[in-house]
Amino acid sequence: MPSFENFKPFIVTGLSLGGVYALSGTGVVVLFRATGVLNLAFGAIGAMGALISWALINHTGTNQYVAYAACIGFGAVCTLLYGLTVGRFLAARDALVKAVGTLGLALILLGFMDWFWPPKSRSMFLPTTNYGYQIGIVHVTWTQIIGLAFGVAVTIGTGAFLRFTRLGTAMRALAADREITATLGVPVRRVEAMAWLGSGVLSGAAGLLLSDLVALDAVTLTFLVISSLAAALIARLSSLTVTLIAGIVIGLVDALITPILSISAYRDMTPFVLATIGLLWISRRRVVTVGRAGA
């Protein structure tokens, strides 16, 4: 077992990744609550946006900040277009059809990325990576700080938005009952479009951060959505606070397993194991509550 000193750098890594997982989980939860669609293409959209940003910087000489904006813009436009064209036909379908529809989008984007950017070593470092703080033996970059802080800020900001704004109230109403909300005069299509747009913005931001924190690889970034989905599932696709906590826990556990050689090879199982444990614990509490009520 490594000493505590060996774990310190991985604590920082885990917190930063956990923040981004929470950020992504928030995008998944908000879209699901507004439209009922579980967006399995979230990671692929962010990955393609990051690769577009990399190509603009390295092959066209585009200003890096313009390229970063292009990454977020691609996520927003791609997700919005999918929501306006395909997503609206999924509204009345069952949950399995909705999930498979976005899985198809993920596979299409993976195919495009493999075609335009064949697998090879690539890297993209944000300007914030060059600056940071030294805490003992651990160097903490501003990218890592932003990863955690942005995840927390987005979660709190989204919660406030859903609670205190008219559009947020409409999204919560859609989650409760789509048909009744429509009969009350709420522009359902417009509200759903805004949910798709917001989720796409978060997808692009997550892809940009993860391309620096993890790697600029299409497959890796696409399947990192599993950790975000695990956080959202632990929150039962409803609580943003639980999504934040779950995302940070998943990031920490995943990172802290890395230096333990005996089990590090199984670290990819972390989100599945934690999601299973979390859901079993929540189900246990619900069963106990029902049992007591019935007694």
Keywords:
295 residues, mainly alpha, ABC transporter involved in vitamin B12 uptake, BtuC, two-stranded antiparallel sheet, 2 strands, 76% helix, 3% strand, globular, disordered C terminus
Please tell me about this protein's structure.
With 295 residues, the chain is mainly α. The chain has a single domain (4-294), classed as ABC transporter involved in vitamin B12 uptake, BtuC (Orthogonal Bundle). The protein is 76% helix and 3% strand. The chain has twelve helices and two strands, in the order ααααββαααααααα. The chain has helices at residues 4-35, 42-59, 64-90, 95-116, 142-164, 166-176, 178-183, 188-213, 218-223, 225-234, 240-257, 270-294, and strands at 132-135, 138-141. The protein has a two-stranded antiparallel sheet with strand order 1-2. Strand 1 and strand 2 form a beta hairpin. Helix 1 (4-35) packs antiparallel against helix 8, helix 5 crosses helix 6 (166-176) and helix 6 crosses helix 8. The radius of gyration is 20 Å and the shape is globular.
